[in-house]
Design brief:
The complex is a heterotrimer of chains A (about 300), B (about 270) and C (about 375).
Chain A: H1 2-29, E1 32-33, E2 40-41, H2 49-59, H3 63-70, H4 72-105, H5 111-123, H6 126-137, H7 142-149, H8 163-187, H9 191-199, H10 204-215, H11 217-232, H12 236-242, H13 249-259, H14 263-295
Antiparallel strand pairs in A: 1-2
Helix pairs in contact in A: 1-14, 4-8, 4-11, 5-8, 6-8, 6-12, 8-11, 8-12, 9-10, 11-14, 13-14
Chain B: H1 6-29, H2 46-53, H3 55-88, H4 95-107, H5 110-123, H6 130-154, H7 158-166, H8 171-200, H9 203-208, H10 216-224, H11 230-270
Chain C: E1 21-30, E2 33-43, E3 48-52, H1 59-67, E4 74-79, E5 82-83, E6 94-97, H2 109-119, H3 124-137, H4 153-165, E7 171-175, H5 183-200, E8 203-208, H6 211-217, E9 220-225, E10 228-233, H7 235-240, H8 245-250, E11 255-264, E12 267-271, E13 279-282, E14 292-297, E15 303-305, E16 314-325, E17 329-335, E18 341-347, E19 362-367, E20 373-375
Parallel strand pairs in C: 3-8, 3-9, 6-7, 7-8
Antiparallel strand pairs in C: 1-2, 1-4, 4-5, 9-10, 11-12, 11-14, 12-13, 14-20, 15-19, 16-17, 16-19, 17-18
Helix pairs in contact in C: 2-3, 2-4
The chains are: A mainly alpha (about 300), B mainly alpha (about 270), C alpha+beta (about 375).
């Protein structure tokens, strides 16, 4: 009995506040926009009984989804988000892996300090760190000032409010999420494996590709998911750094909701985003499970 | 000390420079006397003064801290419970769903979480304000806490709990007197993590807050949409300074404790 | 015939004695795997009972069932006549000393020992008195304020012992308690354990894979294999009268000679190789002519000599192929004409022996008719 209560408390909390809301999002996505509070129709009035319920069901439709399919903006936004998320994930991996690797090659006494240096940005406000780039990438920003001062460019580069700024912002913000799982996987690596490889004739680089890299795969996968999945629905970075030129679905959802006040459409956008993400999320969890099993 | 190859040294230097340079620049510009943030016009601390006088910001900061303390405490309790269930409860009906619900919020885009929670609150007729933000933050923070605590629990020596039971304690006493004190560091880091996540959250707070409850991130975001602002730089510097002090002291404390532990162990062997 | 009447501790032979623990047809399964197979045994008060066997034989599972951390799939376990299966571990009068000691790292030695007493609600002077008593019993008075990581391995083991005895349980379970100690410390601690057991009058059940340890401390040993108890007896009888080749082989060193039996009067003739004369043996069991029989004979019961010994019924010639010199003993591996190697052990009673036997020597090994045990399996 006690065991049941123990499991039930967090279980029901998550069911109520995590899972049920998704069902509601789905229901709202089938509704229509209305000038009411809340701004959607139909609304379920349980007082009206069964008839009210069937009338309610009848008023639901897939109109919003049809609209999403037909209007250019949306599917372009989904595709653009997928592209940006994929490229950013790859860039973050490219930059993060060498850093994680170098951290494991450093002496034992350095490790805690290096770890602390990686974690510190993670604890600092994400909003602030993205904001910092506005001051750097703007036309009169730090970067342009430095480049012109050094004589490398004669005119300011336009980076802010372009997709490039978004890439930089995403890589910058999500770098710790890529470094930490890879570092953790590499740290568990037994050094004698590399020594055995070299003893059997591998050069340093070959030993890396044939032994180290494959064995760090779990960390790489975890890191990639930790970057890709949230980036797909990212809002703050494209909003602050990307301007109107950068199309990302998170921003579209926000605008539909706050600017257009079209809650049903925003919900439909969310539903489709969720459908796109279900498979990566499940794969992420499988990988986590595998990692934990191999440790335990 | 092991010598690093040039490749590794470059990776580390460039990598950490990339991570820290933007924050350093931010801090430097907060002392810029010019309102045009990126054009240096001399050293000044006037923006800090302006910040302190800005009532709206101070109110928002207060709300943010309230929300953070409440939600991180609830999240720690629920998250520790969830971690215990994940690690100890073995197989039970609906376990896959449960662990799915714990891990999914870690990667779920915040716009989806925020939207869905708002629609829930509207659906059940809950007025939006501080409480709804707290509920929202508790929900996604508990998952982070659960990951931290469950990873500690997984390496926890079960025979300590068995010994406690064997000596006559009830299962709850065993948890309270033996397990909890030992996993306390993990629980505390979970709390800190939840606190930071709540303090920093923009998207979910935007969806779930009400007219009476504006949080600091919301205020910052609306200020920043219009471009750079030196007051924001000042605020950022303060926040960065606090986090830096916090992280460094935590790091020093744990290093000192580890050294002391090792010394004591060595003494024990000799005595 | 009269025997000196010395009180010998043997409650298992006394029909009036009520056992403390009874296992009745206990079976424990983990999925497809049967850890304990239809086991029935009585353990009596004040015994120092050893469960001995290789990894996976079920000894730890048996112990955990007594502690309450596992429940039997079938059968009943009785403690003082009461079925303990429904009683959770924290309510049993049983305490356990864990293999890893399981000392609470955040509590001092004193608080570790006091832990169980506090759970019972014992406070104040009664609490202090009992904890001090335990500290004195295990000679840990100096360390009472230290934490587990501040004391050595041997001291931690004593804390674990003191903690598990503090509540004066009827039954103390010891799970490989001496495994982490080095050899010298282990031997000293074995005697300490026996002293403490006698002094406190507690029933000890110890799990070990170290046969020397079991032989030293136990009043009775249960040799286990694959979830069953193969033989339960005093150390002397386990050693000198094993009931199977498995037990004979498990404890100490032994020669196993296989052959065919031919009973002749009170004795049995064993044919064990072509061109070799029969071995003469005695047995309490009965064999039919032609039965397969295993003779288990300990090396120290096999004499080795350069000349043929007279009037020993079993004397065979062979060649020395190996010698294991252990200082106090030498074990000679002697090859018989049929290829089998017999081990003969003798004490090195002479400090410098000119007539020492060496490799490739032709020697005679011999043993009496009662030196070995005849086993059916």
């Amino acid at each position: 009995m006690r065991r049941f209560a123990l499991i039930a408390i967090p279980y029901f909390w998550l069911l109520a506040l995590f899972l049920v809301p998704f069902a509601i999002v789905f229901k709202i996505s089938l509704s229509d926009i209305a000038l009411s509070i809340p701004p959607y129709l139909p609304q379920l009035d349980l007082a009206k009984g069964w008839e009210g319920f069937t009338k309610f069901l009848g008023a639901l439709d897939f109109e919003n989804f049809e609209f999403l399919m037909m209007d250019d903006l949306y599917y372009k936004a989904y595709l653009s988000s997928l592209k940006i998320a994929a490229i950013s994930t790859f860039l973050t991996l490219l930059i993060g892996y060498p850093i994680a690797y170098a951290m494991t090659r450093a002496g034992e006494e350095w490790r805690p300090t290096l770890l602390m240096l990686v974690i510190l940005p993670f604890w600092t406000s994400f909003l602030i760190r993205v904001y910092a780039w506005i001051g750097i990438l703007g036309q009169e920003g730090f970067l342009n000032q430095t480049l012109m001062f050094l004589g490398l460019t004669s005119e300011p580069l336009i980076i802010l409010n372009t997709p490039i700024a978004v890439y930089i912002g995403i890589v910058y913000t999500y770098l710790p999420f890529m470094i930490l799982p890879i570092y953790s996987a590499l740290e568990k690596l037994d050094n004698s494996l590399l020594e055995a490889a070299e003893d059997l004739g591998c050069s340093r680089i070959t030993a890396f590709w044939l032994v180290t890299f494959p064995l760090s795969r779990g960390g790489i996968i975890a890191g990639c998911f930790l970057v890709f999945i949230p980036t797909l629905g990212e809002f703050v970075i494209p909003s602050l750094l990307g301007g109107s030129n950068t199309l990302m679905i998170g921003k579209v959802l926000w605008d539909e909701f706050f600017s257009n006040r079209d809650w049903p459409l925003a919900s439909a956008v969310a539903v489709i985003l969720l459908l796109i993400l279900i498979i990566p999320i499940i794969l992420f969890q499988r990988n986590e499970q595998k990692q934990r099993e191999s440790e335990g | 000390m092991r010598r690093l190859t040039w490749f590794n040294t470059t990776s580390l230097t460039l990598g950490f420079a990339f991570l820290y340079l933007p924050m350093v620049i931010l801090v430097i510009y907060s002392f810029n006397s010019s309102k045009l943030v990126t054009v240096w016009a001399g050293f000044s601390t006037k923006w800090y003064g302006e910040l302190m006088r800005n009532e709206a910001f101070l109110d928002a900061a207060w709300v943010t801290i309230k929300v953070a303390v409440l939600s991180s405490t609830f999240a720690t309790v629920l998250g520790t419970l969830a971690a215990y269930v994940l690690v100890r409860a073995g197989r039970f009906w609906g376990r896959t769903l449960f662990s799915g619900m714990i891990y999914a919020p870690l990667v779920m885009p915040e716009v989806i979480t925020g939207l869905s929670l708002l629609l829930l609150f509207i659906g059940i007729g809950l007025d939006r304000g501080v409480m709804t933000i707290v509920l929202a933050h508790t929900t996604f923070s508990m998952c982070y806490v659960s990951v931290v605590v469950s990873s500690r629990l997984a390496t926890f020596d079960m025979s300590l709990e068995e010994a406690a039971l064997d000596l006559g304690s009830t299962p709850f006493e065993a948890f309270r007197l033996v397990t909890l004190p030992i996993i306390a560091p993990a629980v505390i880091s979970g709390w800190l993590l939840a606190f930071t996540l709540s303090l920093d959250d923009l998207v979910i707070a935007s969806f779930t807050s009400g007219p009476s409850a504006t949080t600091l991130p919301i205020k910052i975001f609306s200020a920043v949409r219009l471009g750079v602002s030196p007051e924001i730089n000042a605020l950022s510097t303060i926040m960065i300074a606090m986090v830096t002090i916090g992280v460094i002291s935590a790091s020093l404390i744990s290093k000192r404790a580890a050294v002391r532990q090792r010394l004591e162990e060595q003494q024990a062997v000799r005595s | 015939m009269s025997e000196a009447l010395r009180p010998v501790f043997a409650p298992w032979n006394d029909p009036d004695e009520k056992p403390l623990i009874q296992f009745k047809n206990v079976t424990k399964r983990f999925g497809d795997f049967t850890a304990i197979d239809d086991l029935t045994i009585d353990i009596f008060e004040r015994e120092f009972f050893a469960l001995l066997g290789p990894s996976g034989c079920g000894k730890t599972t048996l112990m955990r069932m007594l502690a309450g951390f596992e429940t039997p799939s079938e059968g009943t376990i009785l403690l003082s006549g009461q079925d303990i299966a429904p009683i959770p571990p924290n309510k049993r009068a049983v305490n356990m000393m864990f293999q890893s000691y399981a000392l609470f790292p955040h509590l001092s030695v004193w608080e570790n020992i006091a832990f169980g007493l506090k759970r019972e609600g014992i406070k104040g002077d009664a609490l202090n008195g009992r904890v001090d008593e335990m500290l004195r019993l295990t000679r840990l008075e100096r360390f009472e304020k230290r934490k587990p990581h501040q004391i050595s391995g041997g001291q931690r083991q004593r804390v674990a012992l003191a903690r598990s005895l503090a509540k004066a349980p009827k039954l103390l379970l010891l799970d490989e308690p001496l495994g982490a100690l080095d050899k010298k410390l282990r031997q000293d601690t074995q005697f300490e354990l026996m002293d403490i057991q006698e002094k406190t009058g507690t029933t000890f059940v110890i799990v070990t894979h170290d046969q020397e340890e079991a032989m030293t401390v136990a009043s009775r040993i249960a040799v286990m294999d694959e979830g069953r108890m193969i033989q339960v007896d005093t150390p002397a009888r386990i050693y000198e009268a094993p009931n199977t080749v498995y037990v004979a082989d498990f404890i100490g060193d032994v020669n196993i000679i296989d052959g065919r039996a031919t009973p002749s009067g009170e004795q049995v003739q064993i044919a064990w190789g072509e061109g070799m004369s029969d071995i003469t043996g005695t047995t309490d069991a009965s064999f039919e002519k032609g039965d397969q029989v295993h003779l288990a004979i300990r090396p120290e019961k096999v004499s080795i000599s350069v000349e043929k010994p007279d009037d020993t019924p079993n004397a065979f010639q062979g060649k020395v192929v190996d010698i294991a010199y252990l200082g106090n003993l030498s074990t000679y591996h002697v090859e018989m004409p049929n290829g089998q190697i017999i081990k003969a052990q003798s004490a090195n009673t002479r400090r410098l022996s000119r007539r020492a036997i060496t490799w490739d020597d032709t020697v005679w090994i011999s043993f009496t008719a009662t030196a070995g045990v005849l086993l059916k399996r």
